[in-house]
Design goal:
Blueprint: H1 20-34, H2 50-60, E1 72-77, H3 80-101, H4 105-111, H5 121-124, E2 127-133, E3 136-138, E4 144-146, H6 150-168, E5 171-175, H7 182-186, E6 194-202, H8 218-221
Antiparallel strand pairs: 1-2, 2-6, 3-4, 5-6
Helix pairs in contact: 2-6
């Protein structure tokens, strides 16, 4: 017999059922809001209150994760010297990357986006949210604690964070340096953690432009069976 006496459960909190009509309205409203989200590479240096970023991170931390291990860590960088150093080391790696790959498939894929080795947004935007994944945890006794479905879990948390930033009225850019391992030492994170992404966050510059992109058609991405 399955003995549940040692398990801890609670009633489902904060769930609210809506009428079918309200569900349709809410789903359409969310789609309308999120479809306007674009990755921005031109940021303003206008300050953003810290508590707004904190609330967005709280939302990200509600993400589901394998065995509830929550294998993520967020370092929020606002210090100007740190941002400058991150830009310098990122651009050094990018110069090598673009020199080697500009004529290959990855380089050709980036051509239409007009990206290059220069990453001024790393200094200009008020926040760099550096996301680390944790392949395993470490107990107070120094033992490894395995984590499960780490990339999936961190990816979901990042998606929620991006959506929260958009909902708050800010812009962001997903950016990963070509060789991001310098971030561990610079940001005092243990060697076993892996830099997952830098989420550049702030207001878009008034002159910000984004490339004209084609999203795949509905039939290309969805099947109902």
């Amino acid at each position: 017999m399955d003995d549940n006496r040692e398990r801890k459960f609670m009633p489902l909190p904060d769930y609210q059922e809506y009428s079918i009509q309200d569900m349709k309205i809410r789903s359409e409203e969310f789609y309308t809001e999120i479809r306007g989200r674009r990755s921005v590479r031109h940021f303003s240096d206008r300050p953003v209150p810290r508590d707004i970023i904190e609330e967005c991170l709280k939302a990200a931390a509600t993400a589901p994760s394998g065995a509830n291990k929550q294998p993520w860590y967020f370092v929020v960088v606002t210090d100007k010297e740190l941002k400058k150093r991150i830009r310098e080391l990122s651009e050094a790696g990018e110069k090598v990357f673009y020199a080697r790959h500009s004529s290959l498939a990855w380089g050709k894929a980036l051509k239409d986006l007009a990206t290059n080795a220069q990453k001024p947004f790393l200094e200009i935007a008020p926040y760099l949210i550096v996301i680390f994944s944790q392949p395993y945890g470490i107990s107070p006794e120094g033992e490894k604690i395995p984590h499960y479905f780490v990339n999936q879990s961190v990816g979901i948390a990042t998606g929620i964070l991006i959506s929260a930033i958009r909902h708050a009225g800010l812009a962001c850019l997903t950016y990963t340096p070509s060789d991001p391992h310098f971030l561990n030492g610079m940001l005092s994170r243990p060697a076993h953690e892996k830099p997952f992404m830098i989420l550049v966050t702030g207001y878009p510059a008034q002159s910000a432009e984004v490339p004209v992109l084609r999203k795949k058609e509905w039939e290309e991405i969805v099947s109902f069976m």
